[in-house]
């Protein structure tokens, strides 16, 4: 033990049962404990082992036999999620990087969209993705430019051409039929 009498600005504090803290005294002598020089390597090894022991995680992994989830009960409203999630995973796996959709030229896409809306006035996003084979985000951007989304009514959840495009189509059709 090493004792030092240097000025050490330390005090002893105590806390009462009411939660108030008070100064109990000052420290005048400081004692430091060091291992003997011959045991310093053993002490260093002990410190390293102690540090490593507390740094390792005590989590354990157990493999549970597949019992079909007998002990697990689904939360209310969670029954259909499992089947829809697995269906989505199958779709994603089937798609793969080799089957990625490529964007067409925007002018070409406009023509295709106009032709589709000539056949049928209202389309859902899924139907348009299937018909055009375009990436969803690109198709959404095109739909924002050309179409109106129906939130209510009989055609809820579908897109239809904006009125200005419908009129221009009708006029161009009328001009083509009169010129023939």
Shape: elongated
* Main pleated sheet: 2 strands, antiparallel
Poorly predicted runs: 169-180
Please, what is the oligomeric state? Answer: single chain
Q: Count of helical segments?
A: 6
Distance between the termini: 113 Å
Number of strand elements: 6
Query: Overall mean pLDDT score?
Result: 77
Fraction of residues in β-strands: 5-15%
Amount of helix: 40-55%
- The class by helix and strand makeup works out as alpha+beta
The helix/strand order is EEEEHHHHHEEH
Identify the strand order in the major beta sheet: 1-4
Radius of gyration: 38 Å
Can you describe what's shown?
With 180 residues, the protein is of the alpha+beta class. Helices cover 45% and strands 13% of the residues. The protein has helices at residues 40-55, 81-95, 106-119, 125-132, 136-146, 163-179; strands spanning 2-4, 11-15, 21-26, 30-32, 147-149, 159-161. The strands form three sheets. A two-stranded antiparallel sheet has the order 1-4. β2 (11-15) and β3 form a beta hairpin. The protein is elongated and about 95 Å long. The model is unreliable at 169-180 (pLDDT under 50). Keywords: DNA-binding, Nucleus, Transcription, Transcription regulation. GO terms for molecular function: DNA binding. Belongs to the TFIIF beta subunit family. Residues 82-107, 157-180 are annotated as: Disordered. Pfam families: TFIIF_beta.
């Amino acid at each position: 033990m090493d004792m030092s009498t240097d000025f050490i600005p330390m005090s002893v504090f105590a806390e009462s049962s009411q939660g108030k803290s008070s100064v109990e005294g000052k420290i005048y002598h400081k004692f430091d404990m060091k291992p003997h020089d011959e045991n310093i390597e053993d002490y260093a090894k002990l410190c390293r082992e102690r540090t490593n022991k507390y740094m390792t995680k005590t989590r354990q992994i157990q493999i549970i036999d597949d019992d079909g989830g007998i002990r697990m009960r689904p939360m209310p409203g969670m029954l259909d999620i499992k089947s829809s999630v697995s269906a989505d995973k199958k779709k994603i796996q089937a798609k793969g990087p080799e089957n990625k959709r490529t964007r067409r030229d925007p002018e070409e896409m406009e023509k295709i969209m106009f032709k589709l809306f000539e056949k049928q006035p209202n389309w859902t996003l899924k139907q348009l993705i299937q018909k055009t084979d375009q990436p969803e985000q690109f198709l959404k951007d095109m739909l924002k430019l050309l179409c109106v989304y129906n939130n209510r009514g009989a055609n809820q959840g579908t897109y239809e051409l904006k009125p200005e495009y419908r009129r221009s189509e009708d006029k161009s059709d009328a001009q083509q039929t009169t010129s023939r």
